[in-house]
Amino acid sequence: MALAKDLEPKDPERKAPADEPSADVFVRNLMLELAAGDIRLPSFPDIAARVQQVLGDPGAAPARVAVVVGSDAALAARILRLANSAFLNPSAMPIKDLQLALTRLGHQLVRCTAVSFALQQMNLGSGDAELRPQLQKLWREGALVAAIAYVLARETRAANPDEALMTGLMHNIGQLYITVRSPHRGGSGGSGETWADVIREEHPRIASLILKHWEFPATMVAAVGAQNSRNRGAVGDDALTNILIAATALVPCVFERALLVDTVAAVPPFQRLGLGPADCERLLSVSAQQIKSLRAALTG
User: Fold this and answer.
1) What average pLDDT does the chain have?
2) Where are the beta strands (DSSP E) in the chain?
3) CA 149 to CA 70: how far, in whole Å?
4) What residues contact residue 71 under an 8 Å CB cut-off, 6+ apart?
């Protein structure tokens, strides 16, 4: 695993030139950096790198993994909350032992949780305080998509629920990366609209490059990269992609159920998953409290 090296901040004093590149040029340059393995995140906590390292050792004993995760009390608390969420602990028997919680989640979900936790904990500095609301919004959205994706995967049995959850949680990491690397673009307006359009179009490719370099499962990388392809033809085994696209489409429907009929009709992955508006209404209604619990566990 090369995460520790990749996440070291580079050129911390680097400032944007006076003549800023256009949005598409900026994003293209980011893609070139990422393709070369150059990932720049400021003040990224090293707990994610240490978790990656220990989980990358096939001979690591569960107790050793617990020691590494437990070295950061806030991450350990996040892991315990997630393991005790209504979805992941349907028996409602409290899990208080960290090693047991880690076993319940499995290595991939622990890795994903550690990375997402570290991203949320980044110290951006007082000068970038205006970015915090944007980043928090992105993480709340990611957590909601993750919870919905888990429900869809569990109910349709089209994909592994834990993998669907990880995919949802990481699906907008490209937007987060662009936001962190380009804080001066946070405004709105004429050029801001163009910038937002480019981000919407290109952030999945940036996310897939990051996840591929961090050695997340290939199916997860492919799904995140294809999340904007709502109308593509069904090719190969793309169940996880269908789950992710459907989950992102359902986000507005969580708050306004009247949107369900039009949403389901407009998004082909629902048909591929065998879901109609009534099915989605039932899933969202029955799982409302579980979704709320899982989202809270993911965001802390």
Assistant:
1) 84
2) none
3) 28
4) 47, 50
- How many residues does this entry show for the chain? 300
Q: What share of the chain is helix, strand, coil (3-state, %, to 5)?
A: 70, 0, 30
Q: Which residue has the tokens 């992105």?
A: 138
Task: Answer yes or no: are the C-beta atoms of 254 and 144 closer than 8 Å.
Answer: yes
Residue spans of the domains in the chain: they are: 130-299
The pLDDT tens digits for 112-139 are: 999 888 888 776 654 566 777 888 888 8
Dist. CA 155–CA 149, nearest whole Å: 10
Residues 278, 162, 175: CA angle, nearest 5 degrees: 85
CB-based contact 263:250 (threshold 8 Å): yes
Q: Over 50: is that where the pLDDT of 263 sits?
A: yes
CA 18 to centroid of chain Cα atoms: 33
Residue type, 263: T
Q: For the chain, what percent of residues have pLDDT higher than 90?
A: 49
The reported pTM is 0.84
- Tell me the three state secondary structure of residue 95: coil
- Residue 178 CA, chain-centre distance (Å), reads 14
Could you tell me which of 222, 128, 220, 208 has the C-alpha nearest to residue 175? 208
Looking at CATH, the fold of the domain delimited by 130-299 is given as Hypothetical protein af1432 (1.10.3210)
Q: Give me the residue label for tokens 């937002």.
A: 196
Residues 166-200 have pLDDT tens digits of: 999 999 999 988 888 875 544 443 455 677 888 88
